[in-house]
Amino acid sequence: MHWTVYLSGEIHTDWRQQIIDGAARENLPIEFTSAVTDHEASDAAGDVLGDESSNFWRDNKSAKVNQIRTKTLIEASDLVVVRFGDRYKQWNAAFDAGYCAALQIPYITLHDPDVIHPLKEVDGSAMAWAQTPDQVVQILKYVTMA
Q1: How many CB atoms are closer than 10 A to CB 5?
Q2: How many angstroms separate the CA atoms of 77 and 62, rounded?
Q3: Which is the most buried residue in 64, 71, 115, 137, by most CB within 10 A?
Q4: pTM of whole model > 0.70?
Q5: How far apart are CA 38 and CA 11, in angstroms?
Q6: 3-state secondary structure of 97
Q7: Going along 35-114, which residue ranges are E strands?
Q8: Architecture of 3-143 per CATH?
Q9: Under the phi-then-psi rule, with left for phi > 0, alpha for psi from -120 to 50, and beta for the rest, what region is 85?
Q10: For 45, how many CA atoms within 13 A lie in the half-sphere containing its CB?
């Protein structure tokens, strides 16, 4: 079986590349997809639709344009990895995890122990909680075994 894994969440570190590289080293049958990880491009996704008078409406339009990609790719995924970093609050990642739970798409959370409490509901619906990208790779290796 060929798997599609969506990588959601924090965009300021190389965790995605670590998982992609680890899966390649293990020769895992996985295609990875992701949201747009260029922060400024994501914030400006709706700008093509015209200028707005306030940041609220600019963010609202861009969020909706971004959701076209996010919803489509999550719905096409066999598994989702949701990363919560410490630099910013990833409300979008929590939303993605909730969307996965609602659609019954299995997901793995990836975060440090210091956010266990605020993520208790998100982790409660996850199939696994990993603390490192390598742990995610090892889970992917296990679940894709022939």
Answers
A1: 24
A2: 23
A3: 137
A4: yes
A5: 8
A6: helix
A7: 79-83, 107-110
A8: 3-Layer(aba) Sandwich (3.40)
A9: beta
A10: 19
- φ and ψ of 25, to 5 deg: -60, -35
State the Cα–Cα distance between residues 92 and 39, nearest whole angstrom. Answer: 13
At 130 the three-state DSSP class reads strand
Do 115 and 133 touch, CB atoms closer than 8 A? Answer: no
Amino acid at 83: R
Q: Which tokens is 11 given? A: 């965009």
Residue 18 structure tokens: 């670590």
What b/e sequence results for 41-66 when a residue is b if at least 16 CB atoms lie within 10 Å of its CB, and e otherwise?
Answer: ebbebbeeeeeeeeeeebeebbbebb
Q: Whose structure tokens read 């122990």?
A: 113
Q: Two tokens at 131? A: 């603390």
pLDDT digit string, tens, across residues 59-96: 999 999 999 999 999 999 999 999 999 876 788 999 99
> Residue 113's Cα: distance from chain center in Å?
18
The single-letter DSSP state of residue 98 is H
Instruction: Tell me the domain boundaries of the chain.
Output: 3-143
Summarize the confidence of residues 15-21 as an average pLDDT: 98
